[in-house]
Amino acid sequence: MTVSVLWFRRDLRLSDHPALLAALDAGTSVVPVFVLDPRLIDVDRPRTRRLVASVRALAAELEGRLVVRAGDPVEVIPALAHEVGAETVHVTRETTPFGRRRDAAVDAALGRDGRRLVATGTPYAAGPGVVVTRAGAPYRVFTPFARAWRQHGSPLPAMPPLRIPWFAGDVGGVALPAASADQGGPGDRDRARPDGDAAGEVPARRRWLDFLADGGLGHYDRDRDRPDLDATSRMSIPLKYGEIHPRTLLADIAAHPEGRSDGAATFVTELIWREFYADVLWHRPDSAWQDLRPELSRMAHDSGTATDRLVSAWREGRTGYPIVDAGMRQLLAEGWMHNRLRMVTASFLTKDLHVWWPVGARHFLDHLVDGDLASNNHGWQWVAGTGTDAAPYFRVLNPIRQAHRFDPLGDYVRRWVPELAHVEGAAVHEPWNDPNGYGHGYPTRIVDHDDERREALMRYELARR
Ligand code: FAD
Q1: Is residue 346 a contact partner of residue 383, using CB atoms and an 8 Å limit?
Q2: β 116-119/29-36 pair status
Q3: Structural domain harbouring 113
């Protein structure tokens, strides 16, 4: 009898799982393990709570056979492999700077005992580093990357195994952190989480099929920018934890009656953004926390006590700009924010408050349940103008115009800003024009957007000289 180990990380599912198939090929029985790495586990963080909930759902699918160990994987994984006599430990290839370093160290530790770490597949349809220019160089701009990515194509989902012979021996483990710690996002005290946000592969699949069945693809290009509508897939969270793989999404789209619609094409483009940012991070791990493009390295940013007060107002949703505050409050309450709001609030911090983008990126990662280093930090760099976009800095989003355009009836703002619930229609976006706009305690504006826009563009010109 040969035994292999399957070490779950960002792939908390059983279907469309190439590393699981590789583990099955290598062993007559498979030991499934999840490692609680103290460097990544912080039960106060929404991401950890969701991770634990997702692992719990996987453990239930495995009918209790998931082995949970705690500690540094460099010690835990070789010890487990030794204990069960496994020559190979199978993983989905990790692509982040931390994950790559950790896996190299685990592989080296296994090697000292004559064992191996075998990486199969990635959390992406085309793994980072695969789509390159004819000259073999990485792409730095999205549109040509997307073109090449489409030409490369996505493989079909991995076949489901006929049966999975999980290891039947007695392998000890530790308990997952208490269930109360994974019962929701940070704001579940105040608000119910959106339907369909339950953790695990089965709810993820259900949510996705509901999105398809409700005509989500067909409407996607028209409605995806509207935070007042529930018009996006909310797949970012299942994708983050690997409860579902983008290959599965792409195959379902291709087979769907609306799979050739403009909406479907736009949806695929969004998935390609996720692939692109992972690819950029793969080639430039330093870009996680440093400007990808050096042109703005001399840009003057604000800091100090007065700025700290402004940043606190931004974090808590008290800027006096209703659309910004609604987005920031949704983030704190739900651990999720609509893409348009991520852009508007990021623009406000970097261009209206003149704060360096990593300050905001850190805050988002601390609160987003889908917080993902590649998509988040490159999303921030895109808005800040230091990232992959070619002509970015002039794009200073006007929070008032954005509000009227994307929340035309003001419903989204009223949902998240109760002090403005009495203001009807689109007037909610400009409480300063409403005689009773400040009647229920809504704060006045902390800065003047037109002044700060001018200031931002002036700093930009100076930095380029
Ligand atoms: P949908 O509109 O249904 O899109 C489908 C999928 O496409 C998403 O689930 C996601 O995987 C991908 N996608 C969509 N838009 C983008 C994008 N702009 N960049 C990369 N992938 C995209 N996404 C994260 O997954 N994690 C993050 O931490 C994150 N931080 C962001 C920070 C900023 C400043 C910005 C501007 C964007 C960020 N995004 C992040 C991208 C995007 O906002 C979310 O993926 C999206 O809002 C998730 O909602 P959804 O699943 O309903 O998206």
Answers
A1: yes
A2: unpaired
A3: 3-121
Q: Confirm whether pTM is higher than 0.70.
A: yes
Q: Does residue 194 carry a pLDDT above 60?
A: no
Domain assignment present for residue 289? The answer is no
User: Which residue puts its alpha carbon closest to atom 10 of ligand 1?
Assistant: 236
**Same structural domain for residues 323 and 354?**
yes
Task: Establish whether residue 239 lines the binding site of ligand 1, counting it when its CB lies within 6 angstroms of any ligand atom.
Answer: yes
- Ligand 1 within 6 A of 377 CB? no
Question: Does residue 242 sit in the same domain as residue 143?
Answer: yes
| C-alpha distances in Å from residue 94, one per residue of 9, 104, 272, 313 | 9, 10, 18, 36
Rg over CA atoms, the chain = 23
E strands in 311-421? none
CATH number, residue 7: 3.40.50.620
Instruction: Work out how many domains the chain is built from and give that number.
Output: 3
Contact 38, 179 (CB under 8 A): no
* 426 in the same domain as 409: yes
> What ligand 1 atom has the least distance to the C-alpha of 368?
28
DSSP conformation class of 304: S
Cβ(235) – ligand 1 distance below 6 Å: yes
Do the Cβ atoms of 149 and 126 come closer than 8 Å?
yes
Is the CB–ligand 1 distance for residue 139 below 6 Å? no
Mutating to test ligand 1, I would choose from 239, 339, 412 the residue with most ligand atoms within 8 A of its C-beta, which is: 339
380 touches ligand 1 (CB under 6 Å): yes
pLDDT one-digit tens code per residue, 403-441: 999 999 999 999 999 999 999 999 999 999 999 999 999
| Distance between start and end Cα atoms, the chain | 69
445 with 328, same domain: the answer is yes
Give me the mean pLDDT over the 230-235 stretch. 96
Region 168-190 average pLDDT: 66
- Ligand 1 centre from 249 Cα, in Å? 15
